[in-house]
User: Fold this.
Amino acid sequence: MPSIEPLRCRHLGEVDYVQTWQKMQAFTDSRQPHTADELWFLQHPPVYTLGKNGKVEHILNAGNIPVINSDRGGQVTYHGPGQIVVYMLLDLKRLNIGVRDLVSIIEQTLIELLDGYGVESGARQDAPGVYVNNAKIAALGLRVRRGCSFHGLALNVDMDLEPFSRINPCGYEGLDVTQIKAFVDDVSVADVIDDLQQRLLKKL
Assistant:
């Protein structure tokens, strides 16, 4: 059997949501037992995405921002420039971890990263993601097919948070949303990506 390459990291810049989603599906459908796992680091132009169980009534006023029905878990969220998205294309069977384990790994990685910036955060049992004083700073939405994961996490770094006020984020009415910039004046998306990549590589 061919040897398995180490985890690959790809940095895609700002890319269209639908095209990237289609590439994730194609990658997952075509991967073989020896295919290397990949992490895709990117940002999206403004877009609302509804998870598989997402309810349209949680979109209060989309305005001119497109709304995409996605196949990830979770409800509605917003993606935009200044938010880091990491898509996690992992063979969970090969890694011998379950979906709940992966969620915990992601949440713990983000909590430790934020702690490095002096931001105290935590996870919640009732709603996946990472929170600072009950305001959501990172969202999670995964899909598993044939034992392999895709989709992933979105971390708010330095972005326009206004579009979140036009939805019930993750299906929670009145849920506050925050970002690293609210606590750290001098924060760069590139630096946070580097930090997050190193931490995810260690954990995985």
Remarks:
- DSSP finds four helices and ten strands in the chain.
- The helical segments are 17-30, 92-95, 99-116, 189-203.
